[in-house]
Design goal:
- With 315 residues, the chain is of the alpha/beta class.
- The chain has two domains: 3-146 and 300-314, 3-Layer(aba) Sandwich (Rossmann fold), CATH 3.40.50; 148-297, Aspartate/ornithine carbamoyltransferase (Rossmann fold).
- 36% of the residues lie in helices and 15% in strands.
- The protein contains 13 helices and twelve strands.
- It has helices at residues 13-25, 49-60, 70-73, 93-103, 118-122, 125-134, 148-161, 183-192, 223-227, 258-261, 283-286, 293-298, 300-313, and strands at 3-4, 38-43, 64-69, 77-78, 91-92, 106-110, 138-140, 168-173, 198-202, 218-220, 232-236, 268-270.
- A five-stranded parallel beta sheet has the order 1-7-6-2-3, with helices on both faces.
- The protein binds N-(3-carboxypropanoyl)-L-norvaline (SN0).
- N-(3-carboxypropanoyl)-L-norvaline is lined by residues 178, 180-181, 183-184, 272, 274, 276.
- It catalyses: N(2)-succinyl-L-ornithine + carbamoyl phosphate = N(2)-succinyl-L-citrulline + phosphate + H(+).
- InterPro entries: ArgF'-like, Asp/Orn_carbamoyltranf_P-bd, Asp/Orn_carbamoylTrfase, Asp/Orn_carbamoylTrfase_sf, Asp_carbamoyltransf_Asp/Orn-bd.
- Residues 5-160 form the Aspartate/ornithine carbamoyltransferase carbamoyl-P binding domain.
- Residues 184-310 form the Aspartate/ornithine carbamoyltransferase Asp/Orn-binding domain.
């Protein structure tokens, strides 16, 4: 694998999930594969799980790791071409990414959307410039429109914990006070649409995701109806796709509670984290027996390790 930016970069998702679960059983089997190879993790935005799990995955494979919080510790980056750089930006992404490619065998990049210009965000301008100019394999650590390492870990978690052959998985919108990216739900949806699950997305009217990511999903606006019989509930807030990046209403009644779990098939509750307690998800769920959010975050290591392994094998 030379690029991991979406589910479309994976030839066989079932094989990748199997690989991740095998690595979980035997984390240090491929310690020689990454020997003397360097992974650079570049963050334009904050991170806890992605940073630590990807770093751990690389160490398990024997790699060396460098982390750069370029938003705080790097020179201010210019992204536009052909401009006179007489303002606040100091270094162009052409040189910055090119230089990083001299130091690393694989680069991971995190770049959130600005949520102001939909065309720019959905063209993945920043992520694609890194890929173009660094000239080494790149793994997405969450880009403007997708978070594939998270989605792979989510699928690994579902495969690991499912009690029926084809579980019912429901992605439900949850309240928030800030406009959040669509990356996590877009990505979760495109992975679920390719997995062997019965997949529903439920949201208040107006929060429909970009249709490119939801082909094959059932779409609902009735949370109670959608949750009936669910085996897994994936909780996430996202801002509107149209009008882009907007919050349309408080919709506080959309927060998941124990009462709403009653109609499910004792559903496991998932969230990519970070989660704002009692806004997005209630204490009673997070501290109760159905929440698997920490276990899910643990699986981020095996997802990242499976991807890095396939990238190292293709170097
Ligand atoms: C990010 C998101 O894409 O929703 C990262 C998730 C892995 N989440 C946030 O930015 C949360 C910010 C907040 O203030 O709650």
């Amino acid at each position: 694998m030379k690029l991991f930016s979406s589910v479309n970069d994976v030839t066989d998702i079932n094989a990748l999930v199997k690989e991740a679960l095998a690595l979980k059983q035997n984390p240090f089997e491929h310690q020689q594969l990454g020997k003397n190879k360097t992974l650079a993790l570049v963050f334009l935005n904050p991170s806890l799980r992605t940073r630590m799990s990807t770093q751990k995955a690389a160490l398990n494979l024997g790699m060396n790791v460098m982390v750069l919080n370029i938003d705080k510790e790097g020179w201010a980056l210019e992204l536009r071409d052909g401009v006179i750089m007489d303002g606040t930006t100091v270094e162009h992404i052409r040189e910055a990414a090119g230089v990083m490619g001299q130091y690393a065998d694989i680069i991971g990049v995190r770049s959130f959307p600005g949520l102001r210009n939909r065309e720019e965000d959905y063209s993945e301008m920043i992520f694609n410039k890194f890929v173009e100019f660094c000239k080494v394999p790149v793994v997405s650590l969450e880009s403007a429109t997708r978070h594939p390492l998270q989605s792979l870990a989510d699928l690994v978690t579902i495969e690991e914990l499912k009690k029926t052959a084809r579980p019912k998985v429901v992605l439900t919108w949850a309240p928030h006070i800030k406009p959040l990216p669509q990356a996590v739900p877009n990505s979760f949806s495109e992975w679920m649409c390719k997995a062997d699950v019965d997949f529903t997305i439920v949201q208040p009217k107006g929060y429909e995701l970009c249709a490119d990511f939801t082909q094959g999903a059932k779409i609902s606006y009735d949370q109670d109806e959608a949750l009936a019989g669910a085996d897994f509930i994936y909780v996430k807030n996202w801002s509107a796709y149209e009008p882009y990046g907007n919050i349309l209403g408080k919709n506080e009644e959309w927060m998941l509670t124990n009462e709403k779990l009653k109609a499910t098939n004792d559903a496991r509750v998932m969230h990519c984290l970070p989660v704002r307690r009692n806004l997005e998800l209630s204490d009673e769920i997070l501290d109760g027996p159905n929440a698997i959010v920490v276990h899910e975050a643990g699986n981020r290591v095996w997802a990242a390790q499976a991807v890095l392994k396939q990238m190292l094998e293709a170097l």
